[in-house]
TrEMBL record:
It comes from Nitrosomonas ureae. CDD domains: M48_yhfN_like. It comes from the Bacteria. This is YgjP-like metallopeptidase domain-containing protein. Residues 23-230 form the YgjP-like metallopeptidase domain. PANTHER family: UNCHARACTERIZED PROTEIN YGJP (PTHR30399), UTP PYROPHOSPHATASE (PTHR30399:SF1).
Length: 233
């Protein structure tokens, strides 16, 4: 259910989901603000929590909307998108840092959690976050390539992560696929489009009608995905 409210003089729309849970949970991702509430939660109760968290919500929504540029800052309180969801650096009970899914509920305060992460050097953060992105990308891309190679009925090709500035993926004449590591920041359906596109090049090394028919046969929503991908620059 889509609900509208006003927070800090700003009109905000959010998706409200009622489910079996004890507290109110707030999540901000590429689709905007999502709120999960207990079945019996009243509208005034939900509204009062939103007003309490108004600063956090408006700040995160702004950060997240500007994230479409996918620019990364290596700061301890930065948000790092993974599969279209916000993640951040958090502290394990052991004192080590880890990456954790960004969400907040009425009992925990995300701002306090952020501040408890020590001020690390930007080089340290970059190294840590990039290693995490690399691992996530390799696991995810391998799995998606397996799925789409099977759909296309081609042998699973080998792939490499690329750091190309201008392209999401490519396929060379030796049948090796390169996928930009930044794809791992995008929602899964966009990764799937790029994977399907590059795999189709294993059969058609061009962008002919035959090529697009092939893409469509394994990824029917390709026109929508292409348009959406352009929004990420
Ligand atoms: Zn292509």
């Amino acid at each position: 259910m889509l609900v509208h409210t006003v927070l800090n003089d700003r009109k905000i729309s959010y998706t409200l989901k009622r489910c079996k849970r004890k507290s109110v949970g707030l999540i901000i991702n590429h689709e905007g603000l999502k709120i999960s509430v207990p079945l019996q939660a009243t509208v005034p109760h939900i509204e009062s929590i939103l007003q309490q968290k108004a600063d956090w919500i408006t700040k995160k929504l702004e950060q997240w909307q500007s994230k479409k540029s996918l620019a990364i800052s290596w700061k301890h309180d930065a948000i790092y998108p993974l599969l279209g969801e916000p993640w951040h650096i958090a502290l394990k009970p052991s004192g080590e840092i880890e990456m954790a899914r960004y969400s907040v509920n009425e009992t925990t305060n995300a701002e306090t959690a952020e501040q408890s992460v020590p001020q690390l050097s930007s080089q340290h953060i970059e190294k840590f976050v990039m290693a995490w992105y690399g691992q996530q990308a390799i696991t995810c891309f391998k799995q998606r390539i397996d799925i789409y190679a099977q759909k296309l009925n081609v042998p699973v090709p080998s792939f490499r992560l690329s750091r190309a500035q201008t392209r999401w993926g490519s396929c060379n004449s030796r049948g090796i696929i390169h996928l930009n590591w930044r794809l791992i920041q995008l929602p899964l359906h966009l990764i799937d489009y790029v994977v399907a596109h590059e795999l189709a090049h294993l059969i058609e090394m061009n962008h002919s009608m035959r090529f697009w028919k092939l893409v469509e046969s394994i990824y029917p929503q390709h026109l929508i995905a292409r348009k959406e991908l352009k929004g990420y620059g």
